[in-house]
Amino acid sequence: MATVDPAADLGTHEVRNQPPDAGDRDLWNTDPALRDMAAAVGAQGDLLAGYGKSLGQASLRRAARDANRYPPELCLFDRGGRRLDEVRFHPAYHRFMQMSVAAGYAAVPWEQVPGGHATHAAMVYLASQVEPGHCCPLTMTYASVPVISAADGLAGEWRPRLLSRRYDPSVRQVTEKQGATLGMAMTEKQGGSDVRTNTTRADRDGAAWRLTGHKWFCSAPMSDGFLTLAQTGRGLTCFLVPRWLDGARNGIRLQRLKDKLGNRSNASAEIEYDRAYAHRIGADGQGVRTIVEMIHHTRLDTAMAPAGLMRAALTEAHHWVSHRTAFQKRLIDQPLMRTVLADLVLDWNGSLALGLRVAGAFDGTTAQDRAFARIGVALAKFLANKLCPVVVCEAMEIMGGMGYVTDTPLPLLYREAPLNGIWEGSGNVICLDVLRTLAKDPLAGAALTAELDAAKGGDARYDAARERHRGRWPTVPPEAEARWFVEATALLLTASVLIRHAPADIAEAFVATRLADDRGRVCGAVGAIDASGILARIAPGV
Asked: How far apart are alpha carbons 128 and 313 in whole angstroms?
């Protein structure tokens, strides 16, 4: 049954020049940049087509707004004073969790199918466009699988449930559940990224351990278990702390929920371990080495999510300017607006392409693939997260005052934009990791060089920029130049991927405006570029 349209004639004035509601959007079919790059890296197009169509429903955009408008609630006790240590979520949050678990967000990369990590990365990109908060527990679940799989005595119990397509948020031990999620609890008040200063203590209790201490950030505290770090007599060690035991609650005490800038649909808690029961994973005293694979895979998602946020913001901005006039002319037809939008599209398209190329390396089977994944994910994460807040802010500015109110998704996207630059290594940490990797791992440097050289001959301006880069940094640069080096390298790497896999007008414009020609520091401060083909990437056929 059709609904009655809202009244436009209000008596005092007529509502006009307001863009129509976008309705349902197929996030796969309206994104040629995603489809092209997903095909290039072997991602599963059929799965992504279904997921993208489902996520594009207008009802889900409304659900995302509800999930963030009504954030999680901490429930420490029941009405009788018995301890709960639970978090209650809005039903919309559970709706997103159910959809993404069923689609295989955390499972696909480990199901022995071609292009699993690339498919997962594209799912991160799609989900981040609509409701990025629920990605956190699923990203950690995805990233925990290699650690759990290597844990004797735990893999058989946990791995099948982590890979399940059934979402089960019930409060009971993992052996009684059809599906499970896993979180991380690493940082403490005194150390932050320097986890070697952690003070949480692990004491032997028969075959198991008991943990006493605290964690300053524990995201997704309703996960079924947490990978965590604690000190034993031999040093920092990795443990799995189950949330629920056989008929009892483990000694995990929620203290409070973080009142965060963004990511508000998802809970992040401060917790204490009060002799919490735990299983050791990996060698005693080798916690950082044990957990490094989880960090590595989490970084892939933090490199992909910004591209999704940029895409969502630019979609909203393009829809606005395509249906809004000023001075007797559509905004999208005005030359300066087209230049600004086209410049923003290049940042988004480049981030998407580089992220998926790196994800393809995660699927690779050679030593060079693995080496490129190690260095490439850091470069992609750094650049995408420096671009994302600026792109989202510019998209907000394009929409004017309407971009600043929560009737549109722009405020949600803007509050989310800084998160992935902080999560799993802030900018300085990532840059120093790049320098250390290049200094200690010759294969990583060789893999990066091969990837940069793969575009040689595709664009003379790229070749010249490549030689300038090589001349400026013939060896690993000093620490003070780390950001300059990482940004320059990531831009070259992005250009290499675009030259090989994107339409010529995209690659040529990227090289011209990022590597070759003079430009200003702000978005749109570029020379003349042909915007038509570039803008078609954000809204084909418009």
From this structure: 11
